[in-house]
Amino acid sequence: MSYSVISYDQVKSGEDRKNIEFLRSVAAKCRKLLADANVTRYTCSVSRSTNNEFNVDSGKFSLFRTQFTDGMSLSVYIGDKKGSASLSSSLAEDANIESAVRDAVASAHAAEDDPAWVVAPKEEDKIFLSGNLDFDRDAFFGRLAEFLDTVKTDYPLIMLEQVISNHSRGINLYFNSSGTEYISLSGAYCSEYFYSAHDGDNSSSFMVSGYMFKDLDKPFVKIGNLEKSLKDAQNQIYTKPFAGKKIGKLIATPSLVDELVSSALENFADDYCILNGTSIWIDKLGKKVADDRLTISFKTNGEDFVGGQAYSSEGYLTEDYNIIDKGVLTNFDISAYTANKTGYKRAPNGGSNMIIENGSKSIEDMIKETEFGIYVARFSGGAPSINGDFSGVAKNSFLIENGKLTSALSETMISGNLADLLNNIVDISKEQEADGANLIPYISFDGVTISGE
Questions:
Q1: Taking residues 315-320, what's their average pLDDT?
Q2: In the predicted structure, residue 453 carries a pLDDT above the cut 80
Q3: pTM (two decimals)
Q4: Which one of 3, 46, 318, 344 is most buried, counting C-beta atoms within 10 A?
């Protein structure tokens, strides 16, 4: 499971227990300062974290560092006015805590009245444990060295421009004026890869891949979709521009599916567009907005995830939910504040850990059944318009002709509409990519404009 609920006695590390008590002392100081300022409604998170990081530049180890960080995020409510402040400096210095409280109170006094602000009612105090708190430096270094050797041997055309790998662990204490206290202990490994393929003066487009993982059981090249992405990059060195303009299929890799779907939900279902009434789905709750095969869930917990969102910033314990269930819009992804402003239902969680339900067809068969289209791993373009229109350059892409990937493409544009894409799904793959935070399949969409020279 990505997180579990434990008791204080189950906190294994003496250092962790010491830091919990330190954060509780910070919370007590903050409560007193707020009481002295006559603030009776507030939410606050205080944290202490450690980050161990290896860097690779141009294929060679260049840096190892350990960083220690304290942080605070505070919101106060004076009447119907909200003020906020944050800090990323030492919580051991009382002056820093005092400054954050002063800033939050001052910003509240300067704010406008808004009765929609809410602090969640009292919930049962809980301690949450997620991921892996233990950092194995030698094993981590060994896996990174193994990865560099594997790329050099098996992917000789790949240039690793940079690799940033780290293990982060932290303790966060959330408390509010309702009397709730949540403590979360979390730890995870993460690697982000920046690379391209080169043959003499010719090179592929720049690629980025990133994954979170709990342990070091697998070689890094076997995590997620990295192995396939490295192979694809080597086949994208010699490119051809697409000539003309044609309507065809778009087969999107999981990373691009994540980007497209996230953009659609941001444009049509999240706080800003619902609050401002700009969403084209504003009257679509309980109605069909996508293909019947599309189900999108946000899970607070699960085997495929390294972390999970146990509670919201407003203080509500979270629950799993489907935002789209078999093509039907069932919820908006909105906070309690937006729900109070609009009359819609608050989302059961804040949109963490997205799962798109897979289909039954392999990605190979999806390509074989495509007469004409484009296979795209990355998209470079501006933000879509309010109604979902998008346009940009297809990066790390191949032309599909008569069921085969043919030319790697350069200077090729794709354009369409996000809402239309969700209704023009051709197939959803049985394969899904798990990157530690999401579980996403390949999806083939029809009706995309492909244009070039």
A1: 93
A2: no
A3: 0.94
A4: 46
